[in-house]
Write a structure and sequence with these properties.
Length: 109
């Protein structure tokens, strides 16, 4: 991941609605949630939420797939993983024991 990619993701997550939506999608992996369920959870209008969803999709945070009549949104865990690696890549000057608590906390990913 390069700096512009990281900035795009961080910018997309820099809004409370988008951050909450992404965290909700991460919790519902690997099944995802329908767009309608996400709109309902956000408490926003469909059009307002669609704008937020488009920002997240452009940043590569959300994967959209059609299942029957429903549009399902999923968190792009590869993008999350890449961002986390980008942020921690040079962590602790190579002293892995310093980063161990962080890595242990993220073992589910």
């Amino acid at each position: 991941m390069e700096v512009p990619d990281a900035l795009s993701i961080l910018s997309a997550l820099g809004h409370p609605t988008r951050l909450a939506t992404f965290r909700l999608l991460v919790r519902h992996e690997p099944d995802g949630l329908s767009t309608g369920d996400l709109v309902e959870a956000s408490g926003l209008s469909q059009s307002t939420f669609s704008t937020h969803l488009a920002v997240m999709a452009k940043a590569g945070l959300v994967i959209s797939e059609k299942r029957g009549r429903h549009q399902i949104q999923r968190a792009n865990l590869d993008a999350l993983r890449a961002l986390m690696l980008f942020l921690a890549r040079d962590c602790c000057q190579g002293r892995t024991e310093v980063c161990e608590p962080l890595l242990s906390a993220l073992a589910c990913c």
